[in-house]
Structure formats: structure tokens, C-alpha cells
Amino acid sequence: MSNPILQVRDLRVTFHTPNGPLVAVRGTDMDVHPGEMVGVVGESGSGKSVSFLAAMGLLPKTATVAGSVVLDGHQLVGASAKELRSIRGRLMSMIFQDPLSALNPVHRIGAQIAEMLRAHSKMSERAARSRAVELLEIVGIPQPGDRALQYPHEFSGGMRQRVVIAMAIANSPKVLIADEPTTALDVTVQAQILEVIQRVQSQFGTAVVLITHDLGVVARVCERVNVMYAGRIVERASVNDIFEAPTHPYTRGLLASLPQAGVERLVPIAGFPPNMLRPPAGCAFRARCSHAIATCAESVPELTVIGKSESACIRATELMKTS
Amino acid sequence: MKHDVTPLLSVKGLVKEFQLKAQRGGRRKRVVQAVTNVSFDVARGETLGIVGESGSGKTTVGRCVLRLIEPTAGSVQFDGTDLGTMSFDELRIVRRQMQIVFQDPYASLDPKMTVGASIAEPLVVQGVAGDHDEKVVSLLELVGLSPDHARRFPHEFSGGQRQRIGVARALALDPALIVLDEPVSALDVSIQAGVVNLFADLQERLGMSYIFIAHDLSVVRHIADRVAVMYLGKIMEVGPAATVYENPSHPYTKALLSAVPLPSPRVERSRHRIMLEGDVPSPVNPPSGCRFRTRCWKATELCSQVEPTLEVRAGGQLSACHHPES
After folding, report:
1. Rounded CA Rg of chain B
2. Would strands A309-311 and A304-306 be described as parallel, antiparallel, or unpaired?
3. Distance, in angstroms, between B131 CA and closest chain A CA?
4. pLDDT tens across A59-117, in order?
5. A 196-225 residues with CB < 8 A to B
6. Could you give the CA distance from residue A69 to residue A73 in angstroms, rounded to a whole number?
């Protein structure tokens, strides 16, 4: 396999809250290879968004980030604001759930995309404006010339997300982080936006990190999947293996809780996620896990290779045999 | 119909219009028809799912059924009596029978009231005699919470637990119908499953009917006996859930179902997907004729001129289309 374009090692993010330190990300390792579509799934509070906000240097000052995030040879953890500014939007961009908050309401769409272009390259205003129109066309906005002169409020939710994608890819970044990009959209519009993201990935060779809670979205577009729970990756595998041969009890629990055709009764995961102000010793999932044994409380399980997957469960091999 | 021949709820020709502010410089007041001529029945003990994208009018239908908002036209008959002609006092008595659970378990509970007081409030409002504390304890147990939770406050509970509290409150008056408006969409999937199971168990034990409003088609398929698919204020298709999901008659239903990502990479790769162009048009200016025609791949001249009506199809469902799939 090619060298990773983005390499995350032992990433730790701590928020300093009035109730004490909250460790939201507790040692995450991840590689993203050029041009691949990798999914990061998990429920609220699993640390999936925070990991990448940390990588982008977008967290508030109340957060402490430790570990290493190397993007195309640049170390991002501890980088100066100036370095980060030159990297964000050029080498790595991020899009979010709510496209409206990513757009300036008082500037025309075309001008906002042009500004993104001119921030990172010596381009004339005119050339930037015409490139902006091309970008709108790439993301599937009809009549891009006219639309470039309109304001964000004149666009629908789906069209706004396309505009934000156009901005994000303006400087042909190596990595696009898409944080719940379709969660606020209707399902027919979601299908369109996923297609735009796939097109960007294949047309420009952009690696895409898709952060989502929707396992259906992951199954549709991702090649590899990372499953996060309580600030750690608990399972990593190809999309087929995640869905067809899950190794971690949490992944299995997630899949069993999904309503699917032919399933008579859903199987919820008992209990609820741990309070991250006081994370439990050992495996964070053990309180909700029907397979937990005394050893699970002893140490935090590391990701280890189980067949074709990587799993952070000490009983994974054993459990694979019994199912 | 499971039990009785007369439906518990019968909605006929429901219309709800909202006045919009006149546009600057414009003289004409604009009107949005959020719901246009919607009719359906709900049988006793049945779950009717209402699905649709934003702006389809599904939530407005739910609110009109309970007369939380006044319908512009049409009738809502509950257990044989017309709610529209009732006075406020009469309505209050019928409302014991009809309850609602909202989407947001954070906004729907008063943060300053104990959980017990919130659950007992419908009993107080309706002036129900008897020991409320005892009733609260049995309701908490019914929804899978513990009796000592009654003394606690909403902030001490997770989203899933709060939604259970909302359900307990809705059950306080032993309703015959509960409108569930996106009751699990704010919950994480592993928690959502438990709440969905709770709805199924409660229905089996208590025999009430549900109107389950949701945008998540997979959840609705799981829980509903019948499904109504709405688009821009109208029902496009309604029928038994299995038929609508497996043999959709309306092109919109077909497209909607094909857009839902399924949690199976193999299925996803082999699926034929119908990609709808564009967004849902503005309900202020709905298309003439069939409202779906601007995004429909089967649309013809006829569709722009004549509005299709709901007709019975071979599978037993009704659909409103000139060129049905089946």
C-alpha cells in the first residue's frame, strides 16, 4: 500500500472543564491513504469529530492536544497558527453538517469561493472568479454563472452543501474531512451529496475521511471503516468485514440495534456510554458488554490484528469462534 | 383492522394553510398549504407510519389530528365524534384519549419539575382523582425506569431515558392514540433500538394506536402496520407497510426507498438507485397537477395538467399517480 497521506498517532484530546479534565480522545491511531474513502463511525461523544477538529487545529484553547498528526510531511500538532492557516484549505479541508454556518451570509457565493482560491495562490481576482464558476459546475450546481452571483440564503440546504464542497476542494486538497455532511439533509438530497463527494474523490484523487453515525452511509461509500467508542478506535476493517464479520462486541451491538428488513425485534445495547469525566478502568465498553470478564477491567485493550480486521477486544478471537 | 370495524381515527380532507408575511413591496399575502386534502384512517391497536422529507407536512398532520393547531378545512373524527365541532371543554375531555410524544427529549421536559411531577401533570390538568404517586411509580416501571427516578430532575437523565419519561407522561391518561412525532430521531442508534422496542411492547400490552411520524424509513418499516408517504403536503401512497416497501406503486416512494442507505455494503453495491434531481419545490408555489412531476422521470404532459387522485393498486395500497410502477 502507498504511504499514508495523513498519519495520526496516539492522538489525545483533553478538555479542561469546571468539573475537571475530560479526555475526549484517548489515544487514536489512524492512517489515511491517498485517494481513499475512509469512514469514522461512532455515537455522540465517541470522539469522532473531536479527533479531526484537533487534527485541523480547530479546537478552542480549553482543549489540550497531544500526540502526532502528520499530513503530507507536516506535523500539525503544535504547529503555529500561521502554518495551520497555510495548510487548512490547501492540503486539508473540512466540511460540516450545517453548511449555512460555513458560509458568510453577506457575500456572494462566487466571491467566497474566489477568496478561498486567492488565500492560497497568486491568482487574479478575475481568474479566481471564473475558477469559482467552474467549481460550482463540478459540484453539480445548475447555471453556475448566475448562481455564483447569489447569496447563501438563496440556496437550498443541498445546494449550500454543494457550495461548501466547492470551497473545500477549491485548492485541490489531498484530504477532505467530511463531518456528518449529509445528516441535516433529506434522504433524496443526501444521495446526491454522497455522489458529489464520491465524484470529487475519484476525479481529483482526494482522500476523504467521512465522519458519520449512519452505518448505511458508510456501507454505501466507504472502503475502510474505523469504529470509535469512548474516545478510542475499537475496530478497524474493510467495509465488508465490518458489516459481515464484525469482531468487536460494540460493532456487533451497533449492527444488531439497526432496524432492517426481516428483523422482528431490535437488540439495543444495554446501558449508555460512560461519563468521560470518569472513564472506567480497562475496556470502556465492558459495562455494556455481555461478554465482559474480570480481565477486561485490567487494562485498556489495544487494537490487535484478528484475521483481516483490527479489534480492541481481548476476547475477539474467542468470540469469533463461537459465533 | 385488528379489533373493531369503525376506525379509531378518521381524517377526511384535511387542509392546513399558514399565512406568510407579504414579501417586501408585494401586496398579496402569501399562503402555504402545508397539508392539502389529506385523508386516512387509523384502526384500533394499529400503527400508521407517516414518512416524508422536510416540508412534506407530516408533522402538521400530527398536530392537526390533536387540534394542537386548528385545521383550515376537513374533519377529524375520533372514536366516531368530530373534533372540529367541539368546544374547548369538550375537547379537553377527548384529549385524555390522545397524547403526543415529541422529538426533542430535552425541550419537552420542564427542567425545573421533578420527573414525577412531569409525569403526573396530565393527571393534575385533567383533574383525575386518586393516588398520583402510585400511578407515577407504575408508569415509570412500565417504561423501564425505576420508581426512585420520580424525585430526580430531567438533567440527571440521558436522552434515551428522557424520551422514556416523555412516553410515561403520554401514557398517564391511558390514551387510545399516541402521536409519536420523530420520537427516536434525536437518539443514538444503540439507544433508539430500546425505545422502539418499548413502543412495540406497550402497544402489545395496552393496545393503543400510534401515528408514528418519522423521516427514517427503516424505523417506520420496522414499527408500522401501514405507511403513508407524503410529499409537499399530499399523500402520494398509503398502504400496508410490507407492500409499500416491497412493491412501491408511486415513483416517489420508489425513489425515496432507493435513496435510503442500507447497512450492507453488498446490497449497496448491487442496488439500482434512482437519483432524483434537485430539491423539494417550495410549498408556497407547488407545481401544477402532480406535485412530484418536477422531479419525476416518468412525468408527462398529463401530469402537469391533471392532479392524480389516490387509486387502489394491485398490491392493495392506494397511490396517486398517472404512471404507477405497479
Report:
1. 21
2. antiparallel
3. 31
4. 998 899 999 999 999 999 999 999 999 999 999 999 999 998 899 999 999 999 999 99
5. 213-220
6. 10
Contact B193 A186 (CB under 8 A): no
- Phi/psi zone of residue A231: left (φ > 0), alpha (ψ -120 to 50 degrees), beta? left
pTM of the prediction? 0.92
In chain B, where does DSSP find H-type helix?
58-65, 88-94, 115-125, 132-142, 159-171, 189-206, 217-223, 241-246, 251-259, 265-270, 301-305
Cβ proximity of A242 and A286 under 8 Å? no
| β-pair partners for B180 | B101, B212
Give yes or no for B19 touching A (CB within 8 A).
Answer: no
Q: Which residues of B fall within a CB distance of 8 Å from A266?
A: 193-194, 196-197, 222
For residues A28 and A230, is the Cβ–Cβ distance under 8 A? no
Which grid coordinates belong to A177?
Answer: 474531512
The ipTM estimated for the assembled molecules is 0.89
Q: Which amino acid is at A38?
A: V
| Tens of pLDDT, residues A18-54 | 999 999 999 999 999 999 999 999 998 899 999 999 9
| Res. B266 pLDDT band, cuts 50 70 90 | very high
